[in-house]
Amino acid sequence: MSNYNECVATYxxxxxxxxxxxxxxxxxxxxxxxxxxxxxSATSDTAELSSSIDAFFLIFAASLVFFMQAGFAMLCAGSxxxxxxxxxxxxxxLDACGAALGFYSVGYAFAYGDSSGxxxxxxxxxxxxxxxxxxxEVEAFSFWLFQFAFAATSATIVAGxxxxxxxxxxxxxxxxxxxxxxxxxxxxxxxxxxxxxGAKNADPLFGVGMIDFAGSAxxxxxxxxxxxxxxxxxxxxxGRFFDDRGKKLPEPKEFLGHSSALQTLGGFILWFGxxxxxxxxxxxxxxxxxxxxxxxxxxxxxxxxxxxxxxIANMIYVEKKTxxxxxxxxxxxxxxxxxxxxxxxxxxxxEPYGAxxxxxxxxxxxxxxxxxxxxxxxxxxxxxxxxxxxxxxWGAMAVGLFxxxxxxxNAYGTSTHVGWFYEWSRGSGNFNLLGCQxxxxxxIGGWVTAIMLPxxxxxxxxxxxxxxxxxxxVGLDLSYHGGSYRRRGDSLSSEHLEAFxxxxxxxxxxxxxxxxxxxxxxxxxxxxxxxxxxxxxLDESRDEAGNNSDIYNNLPIESQGPTEEPDxxxxxxxxxxxxxxxxxxxxxGTVLGGMYRYYLCxxxxxxxxxxxxGTVLGGMYRYYLCxxxxxxxxxx
Length: 636
Hints:
Blueprint: H1 2-10, H2 24-79, H3 85-112, H4 141-161, H5 168-191, H6 216-234, H7 260-280, H8 289-322, H9 329-344, H10 352-375, H11 384-402, H12 405-412, H13 420-425, H14 432-461, H15 469-474, H16 476-481, H17 494-508, H18 519-545, H19 549-553, H20 568-582, H21 593-607, H22 618-632
Helix pairs in contact: 1-2, 2-3, 2-4, 2-7, 3-4, 3-5, 4-5, 4-6, 5-14, 6-11, 6-14, 7-8, 7-9, 8-9, 8-10, 9-10, 9-11, 10-11, 11-14, 18-21, 20-21, 20-22
């Protein structure tokens, strides 16, 4: 307004025109020109402000979506056994790393690259420009960040399903491949302006195209179906459905997650991040406030309905089966996630009551397919398949049923073809939108199967997919990440752990097997190894039996000694025997067995600078120190 006043003051009709230098008509023209210039400048400033707000909104939404990676990590970590937590967390980290590199190099180009610069509107199967982000304007980087977060989400869905038995090499290859090629082709088909399935195409399929606002099918069904293929090729965890002889168990063995708290925390983080997922898909918040608001409300209602539906369904199932009422936290939480997945595709085009119906049905479908997978011997550690694959498929179909004319007009600028239920109210049986949704589901199913089935089959053929059975039994944390192992909270027989240690010693070339070592060096090595073993062998034995009875019972009969309470000398000999047994040096069947056990105790003391052989009391003192050591570790 101040600029307008300046124009009026400068070119007002009261200005002096008597000298003839400017006519009144010219003065009026200059006034109009000034006002137009000011209006254009103001419009330009407004457009720049709107662009900045949209960019910030997209970056913030991308941050929320990426924060979902933390939710997936917590959910997976809480759902697996304690011996596999570190491995599972690292795989979630590799998802983010692989997705970033894959989507940067080729993924974005395949999804949204357009070498014509928008001049060619013909339909294409895959993008062909902006590889390694070359030629992409800086203003579009916020959009790349948002789409990268989607690609990472699609890849990380499989992490939980493959937990506790998948190799690290295979997982990194998979993450990069999914985000770099598999997912971008689907995103291009549905979301690109040149995609053959997309609603944004100038000539959409059946006049409407596939409606998947935030990715029920594009993101979640893609990841869930990939998990189906991977799990079938990978196989179930040892002992899940069959015993050691290959006989099918009457009931699948439960591998309970070690932390319900982490599972619940992960579920809430995912719910929180989903607002960035669905609301952020508005992209231009400056012109889409109504669309974003509806998406947020529907996201909340669908999640709540899914959680309640699965909780009630599981309660009824358990009550019919056992006669007791049980409220399962995990089932309810996964029901919430199923509701979130299902509403993702139609959150901007359905009524709030429609969102409740969609979420409730998603919760029931989750429960049904979770039970069916067990019957079909499909081992999904975190129920990612019924949540994402089934929930995503239902969500895409639900759009074809519940999309309203009003909200279709707001979000996509057309209401010619809407949900089938609303077509009935028009007196029409228009099947166009639902038909597009079904074609999209079939395309995604066919594309994922055609690409990922050979991919995982190749990894399996090369031996890169499944972890070694012994590594799986002792835990992937110990197998791949080193460190000491604690059996607290996990079921693992001492035979499995001992077999793993023997193999590791064979691979590492145990120095105790090298007979060329001098005697003093052998003694020093014995001392070092005994010191390292005290927190594992001795502490595990104390946890299991409260004393050294486990070590004692594993000794040969002739080495067990008297049945009465052993004295210090016998304890020392027994401790040496257990050490020898653990390191494949048991000599109980030889004449020198007892002497050698006593020697090891002395070697341990020598290695720790406690040798007093030069004194009169040296032998007694060495004997006493060995007994003291056992006593200090509750092995007396």
